[in-house]
Structure formats: structure tokens, C-alpha cells
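Ticket reopened. Same input as before:
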Amino acid sequence: MELIAVLSPLLGAFIAGVFGRQIGDRAANVVTCALMLAAAVCSVILFRDVALMKEPRTIELFTWIASGKLKVSWALRFDQLAAVMVLVVNLVSCAVHVYSVGYMSHDDARARFMSYLSLFTFAMLMLVTANNFVQLFFGWEGVGLMSYLLIGFWNKKESANNAAIKAFVMNRIGDFGLALGIMAVFFVFGSLNYDDVFSGAAAMKDVDAIFLGHEFNVLNLICALLFVGAIGKSAQLGLHTWLPDAMEGPTPVSALIHAATMVTAGVFLVARMSPLYEHADAVRAFITVLGALTAFVAATIALTQFDIKRVIAYSTMSQLGYMFFALGVSAYGAAMFHLFTHAFFKALLFLGAGSVIHAMSGEQDMRKMGGIYKLIPSTYILMWIGNLALAGVPFFAGYYSKDMILEAAFAAGSNVGHFAYWIGIAAAFMTAFYSWRLLFLTFHGTPRADKHTMDHVHESPAVMMIPLYFLAIGAVGAGFWGYQFFVGEGRANFWGGSIFVNPDHDTIEHAHHVAGWVKLLPTYVAAAGILLAGIMYMWATGLPGKIAGAFKFVHGFLYHKWYFDELYDKIGIVPAFFIGNKLWKIGDGKIIDGLGPDGIAAAISGASVKTGKMQTGYVYHYAFAMLVGVVVFMTAYIFLMQR
Amino acid sequence: MIAFPVLSLITFLPLLGVLLLMTVRGDEKSVAGNARSIALVTSLAVFALSVYMYMGFDKASADFQFVEARSWFSGLNIFYKMGVDGISVFFILLSTLLTPICILASWESIQKRVREYMIAFLLLETMMVGMFAALDLVLFYVFFEGVLLPMFLIIGVWGGPRRVYAAFKFFLYTLLGSVLLLLAVLALYHQFGTTDIPTLMQASVPLEMQKWIFLAFLASFAVKVPMWPVHTWLPDAHVEAPTAGSVILAGVLLKMGGYGFLRLSLPMLPQASEYFTPLMFTLSVIAVIYTSLVALAQEDMKKLIAYSSVAHMGFVTLGIFTLTTQGMQGAMFQMLSHGVVSAALFLCVGVVYDRLHTREIGRYGGLVKNMPRYATAFMIFMLASVGLPGTSGFVGEFLVLLGAYQVNTLATALAATGVVLGAAYMLYLYKRVVFGELTRADVKAMTDISPREIAIFVPLIALVFWMGIYPSSFIDPMAPALEKIITRYNEANAISLPKEVQP
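Engineering reply: fixed in the latest deploy. New output:
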């Protein structure tokens, strides 16, 4: 059962990937979808057994790396937290697989696409069922790889290839932190197995260790380093610029990887490591602030974008920010709850957007849409449902989870908690606004597409619509259904030992007792946001242009995404290539070769041009002396640090 | 145990092939054909024999096995002594595996002087295996230098247009190292009256002498690794060498330096090793960052992979000098993994070079369209080079960094940036060669890999995943021998075990 849930996507990927050409596209579609369905069914049963019947289990497969006291195995750990994640991943993945059969029907590499999707699912499942940090890292990098391959799926497009590399390299920067964190864990605990680390965490809470010459509390250090990985994977402020560009990939990919599952891995990571994070107050405060800022910044950018997928991408980033500040205030259950509901409604929104794009013959710019709600009514209604859930309108899924997060942040009572609450309220207002801006621009008003496109607007085939209906059920009901388990009275029972919350900061408990206005405010601002969007994009349609004109600077700043890309280009990419080139041409070519083999050769053969050589030789000597100096200095530094 | 002198047999069996090759007569075409077959059969037989040897190898022992000792210069107490432990046995397997692959890779691309080419390769195999099996310093030195001879010929005769420059540069670098290595051997002989490696591994060399000998060894081994700043011969040598030459150069010859540190420097000179550790860390870290940045700027495929080799070998030297279990096992593993992966990457370059006769990255693009099988193979090796978990590249890098963290967090953090840069330059290379629009007519005309080329890649792909998913088959047998080095090092330096964090 456990093996089917995790390994059948791998089998599907293998069959479709290796034999895709032999068995044909149709068979590849059937095989991958059927195996994915099997995995989804198994994960529902497992969810019942593990989470509802309280029977967590771990299945050891075989030893992976054994080196000295380091011993890690390939294993499937099914505790409550993993069961929730497996359920989400497999259900959404299953829907996306089926949807892709229709969406990719005109592509000539369908088998490869299905194979990648399945392989991604497998990597994600390995990540969430890991029983040690190394398998976690395997899954972590594995999903990064599949994300790279799927963003660059249309590998003829230069922009897609660049976006793919950007995603992989930015994630690698995060992984760099994660890897150092894992090494710190091994250094401190002498093991990389979860059970050993978690049980030893409490004893380490006042221990300090040296890192880069400074003394840190070990748990804060470890948590900070691990969190760097989460920043990269979950596109938090600082390492987020890859996510919007990732929309170069086919839309089902955006739904599965860049909304519902992979980008939530960072949230899962922190929740999984709750026994460590609960002792790292400074890091949690930082997470709270960063999460809140991400929620805010992403929402402001979403206000101005015109690409339908990019708006949803920034919305994803913003919602991830919510999840993180929930983690920051120890409301792990609330974060996981939002992850759970968000997976459904965000996948629904993305796939719905895909259906729109499909209908509009591939157009993604909302300025060239409009007036199509009568032509594709089912998609229109589904998008409404998705937006209602996203904006947190009462009784839709997002209402339960997002409000819970805001209340928990307020109930935390700390400065950062209040900061997060108010920022979160502002972001909630903007969320409602940009969601309905998207809806009105896309579906209402006068048609702005050319006649040819308008004539071809059509509802998507059943194979694409059925997954949408399924996700819509989740977007409506997941919140209502999950409330009692994730954050309600039954939560302690539900999570069992898989999430550890220090009784001193049980913010979810406090959240149930906050003042009435704290609970109602999110709903009011959502309503206000919808109303404002209605005014600006339905009735007074000239207004947005005027506002953008009046606040040119602000609008430009937001439209250019706070200039993060331009900044990174200037301080990161350009210098790296420049330095690389100089080290090659001058460092290797002139200094090392010039003084070494070529210099000697010249000295032997070139007595006649000695004087000329002498002068350039002096320059080399200076440079060489500098290099020697650097070596000596660094040697001394490393030497001293060792003591 | 195996009753016959298996190591000598493995070492000198290629020479039998050389003799056979010399007797081949006939017109040029049939000579070439026969020469290829003889060389392939010989190298496969050697590989089979080395696998047989490995099956008889006691994986739990730290001692030298299959030891043979014969009097050589009897009056001088110098012996012909061979033997393998958990370290050298893998290098021998790597050498005997890559030789038939190299011969297969040269099947069509080498058309002139085929017989002489094959002789050079078999000679090279003898030298490599002998070097890894030698247990006497003089014998070691003979093989160590002997390796260069066929390599010179391979670059100098079958190489590219600037082959003379490249060979000359290689020569200049190695010359200095060789002289100093010989001096160090003589000094040790003078002091202890023996050149027996196992004896010297237990000897206590005076501290001042340790330092001088360490530097002499370093001069020789650093060039081979190659460590920064004596790495500049490598890109030129790779660029000029024929494909198979690059494969063996990256796959085996670069490991001679690391092997030298493990076999000679650490056990014989434990205190000097400790003394020079900061220098080694510094040079390793510079190698990783510096060459990764340089690799980013390359326009030549072979140069890019050559620079990436230097960066990967930086991890090896970093790991060796951590003197921790994880670091040293990681360094060993990284050497083996790099032996497979970099060899495979050079083969990947060879595949397209054979078709278009240029290594310029910008001339390619869009190969995924007409060469999907090639694109897949290249992708796998690229990812292994990047160190993706599940491939061989990950295990080595991860263990090295894990070991290094226990000793020096700064060096670890700096070296780990190489992992980010590595992803950047490899993905950037892959994008430019394989992805994009297929525009040029000559690139369009390129055909996908042939069955012969598939036969070359399949075993390497299998190894990449085997080493990545179940590395224990490799780590366990090498562990005892490495542990012995660590124990000796710690005893000599009276270092207590790594500091545990006390709760």
C-alpha cells in the first residue's frame, strides 16, 4: 500500500519516459494516469489509516549511505504530517495528469511530458515521506530538477530555457543553505535520522557552536540555515524571482509544481522540523516577518501585472507568505491547513486559467481578453469558485484557513505577530482586489481579442473539465471538512506526535479566543477589495489608467516587480561572468601561465626581447605578489579559525 | 584467496596485447581493423581479470592483499612489490574499466597509425595499474613517471593543432614535480634504508624532514590533481588530446595526485599533513570557486569540462585533508565518481566532435531534436556532475562537505558555493548545446548516437545510478583502509576524537 502510493508514479515515469516512443502517446497517457490514480486511491486509504485511525508507520527499504557514524536509509515515513502531504500531492497530481491529457493533446512530446509529471510526483513523495535529512534532500533536489525540466519543457524557447536555469540555480542557492543546515545537524546531533534529532533537540536548546568564526545558539543556527532552503524552494522574498518566470512552463506544471505542491515544500520542511523550530525563537520571529513581507510585496506586484498566469503566480507567492508567518507564530497546524486548502483552489485557478488560455488560442495577456464569460460559462463559474476560496469569502475553503492564520498571528501577542496580522490584512484586501481584477479583465467588458480568436473561443473538453470540477469540490469543501482536524478541537489528536508545539505558545488555542473584530476584519476587507475591483474594472473602467498615470513612480515600481531582477542581474550574474572571464584571461592566462610555463619558455628563447618582457613582467610580479598575499592571508585565517 | 600473482598478471597482460599488435602485418586497413580488435579483446580480458581479483578481495580488511614481493635491486634493499588495499583496488578497477571504453570510443575517430595508438593505450594501462598496485617507492616512481610517456604520445601524435604547446606545458609542470618526488624518495631511502611503502607508512619521520618531504610530494601530486594554481596545463592538454585521451586523463590520471596523498603523504607524514592542512584547505577552496567561475566564461566545451574537473578535484583535496571518516570516504568516492562522470562528459563531447569537428559551444544548439538519445545521456551525466542526489556525484560532495563541516565551517561554506556555481555552468552549457532552435544545416544533419556509442554509455549510466543509489558497495570496502590512515594520523598528532558538542 505504502509502496504503491509512492512508487507507482516512478513506474509510470519510467514506462512513459523510456518506452514512450515504442508504446505511443496514447498508451503513455493511459499508463501514467492509471498509475497515478492508483497512487491517489492508496493515499486516501493511507490518510484514513494513518491520520484518522492513528496508525503511523515507517517502512525501511534499504541502506543508502553508511559512512562512519552516518547511517541513512531509503525509507517511507508515514506519520500524520506525511499522510496529509501525500494525500495533497497525489490528489492534485492525479487531477493534473488527467487535465494534461487534454491540455497537451497538440504537443508532440506528450509522453515525455507525462513522464516528467510522474517523476516529479515521485520526487515530491520521497521528500515528504523521508525519514532522514538526506532523503529529504534527495526529494528536495529532485523536485527542483523536475521543475527545471518542466519549466524548460518547450526547450526551443530561449525564455523558457533561461527561466528553467534561473529556477534551478536560485533553488540551488537555497539548497546551499539547506545543505549547510544538514551538516550542522550532523555536527551537533551526530545523526541525520529524524527520530534521533528530534528526541535530542530539547537538550540542545542552550548549546552554542562556532560557525564562520562567530558563536551561535546551535538550534537557531540550524533552523536559520534550513530556512534558507525553504526561502528558495517556497519563493520567499529574496529568492523569489524564479517563480514568476517559471510560468514559462506549460500551465498544468504551474498548477501542480508552482502552486499546489513543490513550492509548499518549504512550509512542510518547517512543520516537519517543528521540534527544532520550537526552540529557535529568533528564527521564528524572522520567519514571521519575512513571511508577512512576502505576502505583502507579492500582492502589490500582482495588482499591476497583465499576464493571467503571472498574477496567479504572485498570488501563490503571497499565500505562501501567509503560511510562513503562521509557522513563525508556531501555528503549524494552521499553516498546513492553508497549504491543504490552497492546493485545491490554487490548482483550480491555474487549471482554469489554462482553460481560458486554451480557449483564447494561447493568449495569456489579459489586455487582449474580455467579454468571454458567456462563451465559456463553466470555466467562468469555476474561476469564481477559485477566487472566492482564495479571497477567503465565508464558507469557501480559504476562509477557514486564512482567517485561522490571521487570528493565530494576532493571538501570538508579540510585536511580530501583530505586524504579521496587519500586513496580512492589507494583503488580504489586495488579494480580493487583484483576484476580481483578473476575473473582470478576463471575462467581462468588451472583447479585446481579434475576431479570429473570438470565433474560436470554446469550452475545454471533458478530460480537462472533470479535474476542474473535482478541484472545485475541494475549493469549496476542504476548509469546512478539514477545520476540526487541522486546527479545531481535534487537532492534537489528529497531528499526534508529528508536529510539536511548545505549550507556552499554542497560538491556535489562543486564536479561538480572540476578539470578534479580529475574526471579522479579514472578511470585511475581502468584501471591500471585491467591491473596489468591481468599481474600477466594471463601471469606471477609465479609473485604473488614471491612477496608474497619477502615481507613475509607484506603478512603475510595482510593475517592474520592485526591480529585483534588475538588481540581481547587476550584483550577481553580470559580475560572475565578468570575474570568470578575468580570472581565465588574466589569472590563468597572464599570471599563472605567464610566470609559469610560458614565462619560462619565453625566458629561455627570448633573450632578444628581454627589455620588452621586463616591463610587463613587473605587472605580473605585482599581481603575483597579490595572489600570494591572498593565499597567505586566507591560510592564516583558516588556520586561526580552526583553533 | 587467489593462488596466482593476479596483480602482476593484470599489470602486464596489456603488454601481451602490445606484443601481439607488433606482429600484425598487412595493408593499412586490415592492420587498423585487427589492431582495434586485439586491443579491445585484451583490455576486456584485463577488465575481466580485475573483476575476478576484486571478487577475491577481502572487503573487511585494511591490509594489503594479493601481495607479491620479488627481489629487484637485491643489494639495495629495493623490491618489486605489489599489493592492493581498499583504496587502490577501486582505482585499478576504474583504470581497467575505462581502457576498453576508450578503445571503443576511438573506433572510428582514430584513422591514422591505429596500431601505434592502440599500443600506446595498452602501455598506458600497464603503467596505470602498476602505479596503483606498487608497494615499493622506486617501483611506484617508475610507473608514476611511466604513465606520462604514452600520454605524451597520445596528445602529441593524435592531438589537435596546438598539441606541441600543450605537451610542452604538461612537460614543464610535471618536470619540476618529478624531480622533487625523486629527491623525496631518495631522502626517505637515505633515512630508513628501505623503499618499502608499508614499512614507511609506519615509520616516524623527523618533523622537519616531514615538512620538506611533504612539500616535495605536494609539488608532484598537486600538478596531477591538479590543484590551483598549477592547473593551467589541464585545459590545454584536454583541448588538444583526442577524445579517448581526455577520458583517460580526466578519469584516471587526475586521480594519481589524490592517490599519492592518501598512499604516501598522510601515512608517512602525518604531522606535516596536519601542519599544512590550512594551506591545503585554502588551495582547495580557491580551486573550487576560481575554476567554477572560469568555467562559466568558457566557449569551448572541453575547456569548460576541464575547468569543472579542477573544481571537482578541489572537493577531493578538501575531503582528504579533513581527516574525518566522512570527508575521506567522500573524497575517495568523489574521485571514483569523477572518474566515471568526467570521462562520460568527455565522451559526450567526443560524440558531437566526431560529427561536426568543432568544440565551440556556440556552433551547436537544438540537438535534442535530432539526437534525443544523446540528449538523455548527456543530461544524466550533466546532472551527476552537478551533484544531484541519486547520482554518484552527490554522495562524494555531500560526504566531503559533511566531513569538512566538522573541521572548518568557513572552508565548508566557501566550497559549497561551488555547488551553486557548478549548477550554473553545467546547465548553461547544456542549454547552449542541446536546447534551443535547431537552425544550422550542418547541425541538423547530425545523427543520433550509434549502437557502438550506446554500448559505451550504458555501463557508465548504470554506474552513475548504482553509485548514487547504493553507494555502500563502494564505501564499505574502502572504509577499513581509510580508517587506518585516520587512526595513524590521530595517534601521530595525539588528537582526541572530534569534539562532540556537550549538552
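Residues 80 and 518 of chain A are 30 Å apart (CA to CA). Chain A touches chain B through 75 residues (CB under 8 Å). Please confirm and we'll close it.
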